[in-house]
Specification:
The protein is 37% helix and 14% strand. By secondary structure, it is an alpha/beta fold. It folds into 2 domains: 7-66 and 292-381, Aspartate Aminotransferase, domain 1, CATH 3.90.1150.10; 85-288, 3-Layer(aba) Sandwich (Aspartate Aminotransferase, domain 2), CATH 3.40.640. A 7-stranded mixed beta sheet has the order 2-8-7-6-5-3-4, sandwiched between helices. Helix 7 links the parallel strand 5 (182-186) and strand 6.
Length: 382
């Protein structure tokens, strides 16, 4: 087997083999599983992250606080009352109604699943098998991973240098020339963190002859959404998650908002019981206590600004603005800086194996004391 490498040679960090943007393909001649499995499955990499439990964890854009102890106890009491032996409803209708009401939509416009990644997969299954999927470059890697697993050709439209600007004209040209089956745009973008202009996004949606999925995973931190335009554009899909602003990465709850007919057809793709009773009850619980999360999101936004200012005061760094709960920055040697930060007890994400992100690292916004530790360690390794 080839040695498994991650970002910039970082052992065990996604991707294993190969990176989605790599021209290298997994050798298949001697693979006995090719008689059983599709070539796309054998060729693509599994998503994987190595755990460093002893380090301050600033690598996955998580909310820095767990549920408060009083909330956790109340949630456990609510979960304890559930009949564990019973299946959930095939569709979490009560949660769909509640989300729709909070968004000013109809319940028929909402689909919920165990994580927005599942919804990304469902959208590709519904629209494009051995077709074309358009996305930006660089962006969230799951769009490309899932697209390739179903035999699609991925059309990558590069963001504009030097600040990863929205390449409107290039996107419009690709839509016209390549005629993709579906397009994915993360806003704010990951891993760059920048927010794209609303007018440009709407122009893409208006001119596209396919579904345009705008991933608003970080909406609580950006306060920017295309939700008011959903009624006007039947090809617009908005993706949301409970993992970021509600801190429920471990519960795996994602949802989308779309035209009712589109949502109904997507429900055919999703497996029955796609959200467990435990996850649905947890979602209802955090919505009951949404006021407890708003101050945490506000703190993250304040800390983001403080970190940006402190990082820009350090020599030898290129730091980009962010509308999310993370910051991307460029150092002289990403591999070396990552290792030194880890030695200092701080885990960040090395995203530098992408050609356009040479020597770039990404840090999540943590608690104030965690951010202080990161800033001190970063200053020491420059």
């Amino acid at each position: 087997m080839p040695r498994q490498l991650g970002f910039a040679g970082e052992p065990g960090i996604f991707p294993l083999w190969p990176h989605p943007h790599s021209s290298i393909e997994r050798p298949m001649k001697s693979n006995p599983w090719k008689r059983y499995l599709r070539p796309e499955v054998l060729r693509e990499a599994a998503y994987h992250l190595t755990s460093y439990p002893e380090a301050i964890k600033l690598n996955q854009n998580e909310l820095p606080y767990d549920l408060a102890e009083d909330l956790k106890q109340e949630l456990l009491e609510r979960l304890q009352a559930l009949p564990f032996q019973r299946y959930p409803l095939p569709q979490p209708m009560a949660l769909k109604r509640r989300l729709a009401e909070s968004l000013g939509l109809k319940p028929e416009q909402i689909e919920v699943a165990n994580g927005s990644n599942v919804l990304i997969q469902a959208l590709i299954l519904a629209t494009s098998l051995k077709g074309k999927v358009l996305t930006l470059d660089p962006t969230f890697s799951v769009y490309e991973i899932e697209a390739k697993l179903f035999g699609n050709r991925v059309i990558r439209v590069p963001l504009e240098a030097p600040d990863f600007g929205f390449p409107l004209e290039k996107i419009l040209a690709a839509l016209k020339r390549q005629r993709p089956n579906i397009a994915f745009i993360a806003n704010p973008n990951a891993p760059t963190g920048n927010l794209f202009p609303e007018g440009a996004l709407l122009e893409v949606v208006a001119k596209a002859k396919c579904l345009v999925v705008v991933d608003e995973a970080y909406v609580q931190f950006s306060q920017a959404t295309l939700l008011p335009h959903l009624k006007k554009f039947p090809n617009l899909v908005l993706l949301r998650t409970f993992s970021k602003g509600f801190g429920l990465g471990g519960a795996r709850i994602g949802y989308l908002a779309a035209h009712p007919a589109l949502a109904e057809n997507l429900s055919k793709i999703l497996m029955p019981y796609c959200l467990s009773s435990l996850s649905e009850a947890t979602a209802h619980f955090v919505l009951d206590h949404a006021d407890r999360f708003a101050p945490i999101v506000a703190e993250v936004i304040r800390e983001r600004g403080r970190m940006l200012a402190a990082m820009r005061a350090l020599p030898g760094l290129r730091v980009w603005d962010s509308a999310a709960n993370f910051i991307m920055f460029r150092v002289t040697n990403a591999k070396g800086c990552f290792a030194r930060l880890l030695e200092a007890g701080v885990l960040v994400r090395n995203v530098s194996d992408h050609g356009g992100l040479k020597n770039c690292l990404r840090v999540s916004v943590g608690r104030p004391e965690e951010n202080d530790a990161f800033l001190q360690a970063l200053g020491a390794c420059l």
